[in-house]
């Protein structure tokens, strides 16, 4: 195998950490290195003369945390109540207690093309969500299916960042994933039922290295069901300590830079998911409808969150988060008959949660050699 030149290795490592996500399904806006170039409206002192060379705008701003290349995330809640209310005849109401709800998330991003005027990134993810209920088995079809198999999402996405000039930029992303309670290839024989797709696109302005914003849309499952809604990117650093990062309405966070190795965030996020649940036993709905064989589970939650990110090594950071989770919807819909009516409305009690995350970033020394400041 031929060895790579130092320049090639450097470009690969820096490019490999261009994206961060989070997702659920609302995705993190890519943070691009090198650091954003000053524009004619920049108030930063000692800005270079833009007439000397072409500059390219990107959505990120000075003060934002390092780009995430590989992410390993685990989240867990305290116990909470579960109240299921039937919406059709033939299905019972049910109440229980969930001992815990845990999520394991892995994400990775690979640069397919990394040039100042065009950046293309391929992202991969695997998410697994598990519930543990009291009095197992619950003898309630929906909950027993969820507990025995868990809820999984396996996806791939393509993100494109197209700087136009020193002020204007485009951002677009498409994603496809298999989402449901599948366990094996046999479960996925009819994989189109598990397939979910989402997309987003923005057009933005870089007003200074400290201020970028854009308008566009998101099309996906942030609010449980597939929907199209307008969205705004707003990234602003007010001074050396304080800033604001928003992908409204899905996520807003105030940022406090304690140092270049320690960052605090506080705000809210709206997360949604859409899963296909294959029932092991058919659920009859009456003489005029087919018995239910599958359910579509739509989940939406709002989190009030505090987060701390800290550099452990030059290439490795730790993220710790805690807050309160409010469940807006956890409802099951008919996926067998054309009516697609709601079968079960479930209310999950609000609960505290904590999460811990490790993520890889471009090594500090490598960035310094490339002339990039964090």
Describe the structure using short key phrases:
374 residues; mainly beta; 16-stranded antiparallel sheet; disordered N terminus; signal; DUF6268; DUF6268 domain-containing protein
Written account of the structure:
It is a single chain. By secondary structure, the protein is mainly β. The protein has a single domain (6-369), classed as Porin. The chain is 7% helix and 56% strand. It contains 3 helices and 16 strands. It has helices at 6-15, 141-149, 364-369, and strands spanning 70-77, 80-86, 94-115, 118-133, 151-163, 168-180, 195-208, 211-220, 227-237, 242-248, 251-259, 262-283, 292-313, 316-334, 342-348, 351-360. The protein has a 16-stranded antiparallel beta sheet that branches. A hairpin with a 2-residue loop joins strand 10 and strand 11 (251-259). It is globular and about 65 Å long. The two termini are 34 Å apart. The model is unreliable at 1-53 (pLDDT under 50). Residues 195-277 form the DUF6268 domain. Keywords: Signal. Residues 1-26 form the signal peptide. This is DUF6268 domain-containing protein.
